[in-house]
Design brief:
single chain; 208 residues; mainly alpha; 11 helices; 0% strand
Length: 208
C-alpha cells in the first residue's frame, strides 16, 4: 500500500463527492471514500508485488515491505487481490454499480496498463498512467449521483492533462529518483528530455 497516493485519492474523491448536486449522509460518504481508498491501496500492493525485483535495486523503494523481507511476494499478491475484491464489493454495497465498476477499472488500469504493460517499456508511463490517478473524482461524483456527466469528466481531464503537460518536468525527476535510467537507459535516451538530462543522470549513476 502507498499511503501518500492513498491520501491524494481521499482528497480527489472527496472533491468529486462534495461538488456533486446530490448530497448523501456523512456516514455513507465516509464509508464510500474508505472503500475507494482501500482500492487505491490494493492497486499499490499489486504494483509492489509485480515490481519487487526492481524495488530492491532502487534507493527510493528498497525499504518497501517486500525488499526488506517483512512480507513475501505471494503474501503481497494475496493481500492486493483480497483488498481489490473487498473495495469493489464494499463500494457496490454502500453506493452503486457504476461507482464500483469505475473503481474496478481504475485498479485494473493501474495494475495491467500502467504497471505491467507501460512502466518497463516507456518513460511516458507517467502520462498515460495518469488516467488511473484521474479517476477518483469521477468515482466520487458517481457515488452521489449514480451517473456521469460533463462535470466529473472535466475533473478527470484537469488531472490527466496536468500530468500530461507537467511530464517534461515529472519524468526526469521520476527517473532520477527511481534510477530507471540505470535500469532502462535505452528507453530514456530516446526521449528529448533524456538527451538533456542524461549528463546529470550519468553522474547520479556513478555516485550510486
Amino acid at each position: 500500500m502507498k499511503p501518500r497516493v492513498m491520501s491524494l485519492v481521499i482528497f480527489t474523491c472527496a472533491v468529486g463527492l462534495l461538488t456533486s448536486p446530490n448530497k448523501i449522509p456523512l456516514f455513507d460518504s465516509l464509508i464510500c471514500i474508505f472503500f475507494v481508498t482501500i482500492g487505491a491501496g490494493a492497486a499499490g500492493a499489486l504494483n509492489m508485488w509485480y515490481e519487487a525485483d526492481l524495488d530492491k535495486l532502487m534507493t527510493r523503494t528498497c525499504l518497501r515491505p517486500i525488499p526488506t523481507g517483512k512480507i513475501t511476494k505471494d503474501q503481497a499478491l494475496i493481500f492486493g487481490i483480497l483488498l481489490s475484491i473487498v473495495s469493489v464489493i464494499g463500494l457496490y454495497y454502500f453506493s452503486n454499480f457504476l461507482s464500483a465498476l469505475l473503481l474496478f477499472i481504475t485498479i485494473a488500469f493501474y495494475v495491467f496498463v500502467y504497471t505491467i504493460w507501460l512502466k518497463r517499456k516507456t518513460p511516458q508511463n507517467i502520462v498515460i498512467g495518469g488516467a488511473a490517478g484521474a479517476f477518483p473524482p469521477v468515482i466520487g461524483w458517481t457515488i452521489a449521483t449514480g451517473s456521469i456527466s460533463l462535470e466529473p469528466l472535466t475533473f478527470f481531464l484537469i488531472i490527466f492533462f496536468a500530468l500530461k503537460y507537467g511530464s517534461p518536468i515529472l519524468i526526469p525527476i521520476f527517473l532520477a529518483s527511481s534510477e530507471r535510467a540505470i535500469i532502462h537507459p535505452s528507453l530514456f535516451e530516446r526521449t528529448t528530455i533524456g538527451l538533456f538530462f542524461k549528463p546529470g543522470l550519468n553522474t547520479l549513476s556513478q555516485e550510486a
